[in-house]
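Appendix B. Raw example, untouched.
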Amino acid sequence: MIPTFWTSSPSMPHHWSRQHGRLGVEVYNATLPSWACVARATLAPPPLKPRPRLLPPQGSKGLAVPALFLLRLLPPALPQRPASPWPWARVVPSCRAEALGGGGPTPGEAPAAAPRCSRGRGRMRRRLARLVLLCLGCGLCSLLYAFSQLALEQQQQEEKDGARRQRAFPLRRQPSGAAAWRRPQQRRREAPGRCKNVSMSYWNSYWMLPSDVCGKNCFWEAALRYDISKPHPSETMHLAVVACGERLEETITMLRSAIIFSIKPLQFHIFAEDQLHHDFRETLDNLAYQEKFNYTLYPISFPTENAAEWKKLFKPCASQRLFLPLILSDVDSLLYVDTDILFLRPVDDIWSFLKKLNSSQIAAMAPEHEEPRIGWYNRFARHPYYGKTGINSGVMLMNMTRIRRKYFKNDMTTVRLRWEQILMPLLKKYKLNITWGDQDLLNIMFFHNPESLFVFPCQWNYRPDHCIYGSNCQQAEKEGIFILHGNRGVYHDDKQPAFRAVYDAIKHYTFGDDLVNALLLPLELELQKTQHTYCGRIYKVFIKQLTKSIQDIADRRYERR
């Protein structure tokens, strides 16, 4: 037989047969007429051999399912091409015919099915995609496990630090002892099986709940139970005060002002000398609105090796505030105020500043002065201080968890020190140069760490210095006073009668009486009598926010009806 070959004669068909996935050839004899077909052979591929199944060894049934699942992810074995029985025939896979030959089916021919090799490639892509998803899932699980281990190490480290602080403060009472000072209403325990009420903060880098909260080491439950973008309705605000000497009445008046206007429940942390504990309990247990607050009494305590030196710094017990992050180790955020503070707005308002702190800020305070020409620090200080005029620590909002974790820059060593490590070295270095005790130490600390402080406006810590030489707090003139600070004893003398009028009005107000007729109107009449003083000339700044607070209370009562 004469060898055959493919011809390009226009009188001869120029296509290859496509038989739904089979391999086809057409053999033409060049010596015969143009339309004479000598032979046409259609070769079908042999059936695919089944892949051997990999079965686990006997006694290892747990490995069978993962092994078979992984086998399904692998691409299928490629079929073996059959050898052509005719050496002179050219065999071309039909799935390539469209690219090499004439394209689609001829007129009148039914559409061909999808080529076998195209279907194989699609299955291979899907299985490879499954394999990639499996690898990503394993990587995510490994990452979550690493985070949980880091969180566990951090928790263990905090427990060790707490034990060291406990040894440094032997006078600190345990929670069981402090519970004896609380009112009976506070001693109730949560029902078994109920999740502990905690405050989750956005600084938590590990997204996990504490061990005594439902869902141990479960970041999903933390994300679902707490929405940090808005305040939780049952969130408790923690307020601390230090009272020594003749400060009982002043402290009670401050606590009354916080109870009258606040919305969310309050937890008072009262640090007082032992002889004042009975009077505090007797007074607070008889106050109205018991459902709005709880309180805990603490003894005055300092590190044992330097207790005498700390206690006599500035005023008695004033430096106790420096050790609050170490003593209240289970409190996340805290508002510290002096005893001579009066709230003219709900504590909720200043508490909301916690959400305005950026990731590096640990505390918020107001400037010592607005006008540098009458400032004390910029004229007389013999130590570093924050900003242009220093800061006042009478109202101090703290994220105490950040304070306990931060390492502070300082001018004593190139090594950064933690809060409990830096306090005593600062005192030893500057004790001959400081005048205002603990406030001066805070100024020195934030001078070296200015990025860690948030400064709120002067109406949140309004003092006689803002009006005694003429008004120099522009924000208070526009919006009114939010928090009144009667330092220099102005509540108890006649030097600044406007401050004393506000103090007396809140002190003598009876809980449950009409706030307008029993508080606001009598106060306004008394303030009008003080217009002969610089502070009295702008007496309306004292009642602007107070009026708004009373109106807000009336609106909330109307909505409940």
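End of appendix B.
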